[in-house]
Amino acid sequence: MDDIFSRLENLKKERNAVILAHYYQDPDIQDVADVMGDSLALAQHAVKTDADVILFCGVHFMCETAKILNPRKTVILPDMNAGCSLADSAPKEEFKRWIESYPDHIVISYINCSADVKAMSDIICTSSNAEKILNSLPKDEKIIFAPDKYLGSFLKEKTGRNLLLWNGSCQVHEIFSEKELVKLMTRHPLAEVLAHPECDENILRHAHHIGSTTSIINYGAKSNSNTFIIATEPGVIHQMEKANPRKTFVPLPSNDGCACNECPHMRLNTLEKMVSALENLTPEITMEEELRLKSLAPLERMLALS
Ligand code: SF4
Predict the structure, then answer these.
(1) 4-83+266-286 against 86-170+295-305: fold identical
(2) Strands of the 192-195 sheet, one edge to the other
(3) What is the mean pLDDT of the segment spanning 188-209?
(4) At 149, is the pLDDT very low, low, confident or very high (cuts 50, 70, 90)?
(5) Which of 151, 175, 288, 290 would give a disulfide with 254, using CB separation of 3.0 to 4.6 Å?
(6) CA distances in angstroms from 64 to 50, 76, 234, 281, listed in the order given
């Protein structure tokens, strides 16, 4: 019987499929992916691909984004239950009522939100391009930023814009422990701390570099330091170790020292579920055309500004 890797390879050819994977996936999934990236890179690749099928190894909102950009392609994901606490923190009706109470504000939403929230937004952003997008707006523009309050606070500080923030957060990034970070910094006094802006300010204030997963990976490669403490989902460390075998990357633990710094949603995807998805072309992302068109407009504004 063929091993799982040959089965995946054969199915990929049969289906004319491309495998896109986020950096927070298990290392074995990262190693079979055709394209690795953060939300922005994967969204950009989803626009360019000429494959008939996109097998998206990430979470539901990312697969929705691929579908919004590729209505004619079949977009499948390994596990339909791979959601996102941050996207779930902005339920459609509640969000609608909230933004309607600020009719003079424009709505910028982080890509980690549902298609329904995207459809109610003026521009989408990612952690790679949020600053650039905010700076492209007039200085006196009234802006709602959703759903991540930590990224919002970081951007408020960085750009000096008066952002009105939705109270959402990522369950992985908000529980990193400052106490553990200080202990690690004492144990590795020459280490640089690299943090994702979805983290709380009590982590960000120790960071030598704050940025998207891609910028964290790039910073680790370019820096002359040999040791890094990584304050984001530890899946990124796989790519960092592959590219920099002589450097040391230490994952920051969460508050109770458990493995909750791994995203439980991302980690639902497995190689076996990828094979099953390609064999059966399910679970598949489908969407009403009206919702797709409404959520496409703010995504296209983001891609034009990126
Ligand atoms: S790491 Fe956080 S923001 Fe990313 S998918 Fe998981 S829950 Fe959502």
Answers:
(1) yes
(2) 209-210, 192-195, 227-231, 248-251
(3) 97
(4) very high
(5) 175
(6) 18, 10, 24, 16
Strand partners, 228: 192, 249
CB neighbour class for 4 (10 Å; exposed up to 12, middle 13-18, buried from 19): middle
Mutate to test the pocket of ligand 1, among 113, 126, 173 (most ligand atoms within 8 A of CB): 173
Instruction: Tell me how far the alpha carbon of residue 86 lies from the centroid of ligand 1, in angstroms.
Output: 6
Closest listed residue to residue 232, CA positions, set 29, 21, 38: 38
106: pLDDT strictly greater than 70: yes
Site to substitute for ligand 1 among 84, 126, 169, most atoms within 8 A of C-beta:
84
Structure tokens at 125: 């952003």
CA 263–ligand 1 middle distance (angstroms): 6
Atom of ligand 1 nearest to the CA of 24: 1
95 CA distance to ligand 1 middle (Å)? 19
Question: pTM value?
Answer: 0.94
pLDDT at 111 over 60: yes
C-beta of 85 in contact with ligand 1 (< 6 A)? yes
Q: What is the CATH number of domain 86-170+295-305?
A: 3.40.50.10800
Measured in Å, residue 265 CA sits from the centre of ligand 1 at 7
pLDDT tens digits along 213-272: 999 999 999 999 999 999 999 999 999 999 999 999 999 988 766 656 899 999 999 999
Q: Where are the domains of the chain?
A: 4-83+266-286, 86-170+295-305, 173-251
pLDDT at 43 over 90: no
State if residue 59 touches ligand 1 by the CB under 6 angstroms criterion. yes
CATH code assigned to 4-83+266-286: 3.40.50.10800
How many C-alpha atoms does 32 have within 13 Å on its Cβ side?
24
Q: What is 173-251's CATH topology?
A: Rossmann fold (3.40.50)
